[in-house]
Amino acid sequence: MSVTSRYREAWEGFWREAPEEQGAVFWDAEPALTAGRHLALFEAHLADPGLAMVDLGCGNGTQTRFLADRFPRVVGVDLSAAALEHARHADPAGQATYRLFDAVEKTEAETLHAELGDVNIYMRGVLHQAEPDDRQQLVNGIATLVGERGRAFLVELSQEAKPVLMGLAQSPSGPPPKLAPIFRHGIAPGEVADDAVPEFLAAAGLGILASGEIPLITAEYGPDGSRIELPSKWVVAGRAV
């Protein structure tokens, strides 16, 4: 099983259109407000920080490069070739490596695990954007990658985020400029029930080691000039023992 061609093309179109500069994409906030805060939550739970760190759904690599300053080997993976072009262009020194990857495809997850061994995973806001039929397969792929020793840090929009996004999208003046392309390309965030994430993890053989709530900081601002923040929940998951 792999993602649908419609879904893949939606992301290709989005990233082909996206500007090069950091912060031009809705969720591309600076790492100090995103991966930096997340690192403080999950680093203590890593059983082996020396494992390769995979930034799953790396996009243009802003967070990947931040992680590459802190871990010995970081690999940014994404479904979109256009996204990876952005990431490589922004990383001329090659701090991280980047590769095309469909986490829903079982054989791709098995191949990457055979190459890297057990890995730690950072994934921000990917599950809620996946199509409903792909979500369990995506988490199954994560379980394959972390193996026995790895840990996965997942941060996803909570149910409370949907009315915030819908309010922004339906504003009389139209959605904010950085949010509009997401809807235009047909990749509007879907709804994942808060209690569904633990169920996906359990079905994949992963247990939750830590969890909490933290706002997902965006690179966009509201009409009042304040930065848009979306309610989100985070978990650290690993092989159930």
UniProtKB/TrEMBL annotation:
<keyword id="KW-0489">Methyltransferase</keyword>
<dbReference type="GO" id="GO:0032259">
    <property type="term" value="P:methylation"/>
</dbReference>
<keyword id="KW-0808">Transferase</keyword>
<feature type="domain" description="Methyltransferase">
    <location>
        <begin position="54"/>
        <end position="148"/>
    </location>
</feature>
<dbReference type="InterPro" id="IPR041698">
    <property type="entry name" value="Methyltransf_25"/>
</dbReference>
<dbReference type="Pfam" id="PF13649">
    <property type="entry name" value="Methyltransf_25"/>
</dbReference>
<protein>
    <submittedName>
        <fullName>Class I SAM-dependent methyltransferase</fullName>
    </submittedName>
</protein>
<dbReference type="GO" id="GO:0008168">
    <property type="term" value="F:methyltransferase activity"/>
</dbReference>
